[in-house]
Predict the structure.
Amino acid sequence: MNRFLQRQVDSLNMPGLSIAFINNGKIVYSNEYGYADIENKIKVKSNTIFEAASLSKTAFAYFILKLADKGILNLDTPLYTYLRNKDLEYDERYKLITARMVLSHTTGMPNWRQGNLELKFTPGTEFSYSGEAYQYLVAVVGHLMNKTPKELDQEFYNQVGKPLKMKHAYYYWNDYISEHRAAGYKEDKGVNKKQEINKMEDFGAAGSLRTNAIDYANFMIGIMNGKGLSKNMIKEMFKEQTKVPDWKSTDAWGLGISMKKTKYGMRYMHSGDNGDFTAYFIMNREKKAGFIFLTNCEKARALFQKLEPYFIEGSIN
């Protein structure tokens, strides 16, 4: 595995990589490759922090299910009854939007607004991936709990990070991230060029989680085992909520996670792309197996295409 991954890092010209494999509900392999900062010759370490990009959504979905278990909100109560969305009040259909729709991407909101915020369809009737909707849900939760974004990040850590052994998992920028973060890179004519720091100084449920592979793998083990949630909520998370008609990699969406039927069982996964940070995780709940990796460049998809056959077939090309 070490040789295989080193070849991939070299051939793909990846700056850095943090990766972990899970088997039988335990981390059986983890490692770090390459550089957190090429220019300063700082290598990736076990505590190097990467942007998890849209893998943030799955962890946030779990947080919402925890809050639902506690009665802080209901998955099927229209969100406007908790907090109005002033940007959508001109369209009465927005009053149909619920937390369940946000987590299953059926709100009708765009991924990110381009100008005025508009609904693409009547909420609950179709699938349309939306980070924008996640941020509306953040505002609702902050309002219900009377928390600032920074305080909400601490609440996430108390209710999700610490119980699921995520030693380092932060949505809101802090000093630890500043000291231990990997620099982001994009390749230009064969050369990895360092990108400007995007601190994302807010609680970005859609993409601002900063963590590493071992900590995210611990989160995956937690949700595989249904830890910290009622049986009903864990069932809802992994149940088909809506069909996804036009994605080759996905048949349906649960709550915060994609689903695809394979001959080896149901494959749950999420990918993430912040441009200069990309990531993937994949898991089989029945076998309690999977993997997670994060990289500080745009090459995650290419690596995933090499790793998935290994996960499924047990063979390395």
Observations:
- The first helix runs from residue 2 to 11.
- DSSP finds nine helices and 13 strands in the chain.
- The mean pLDDT is 96.
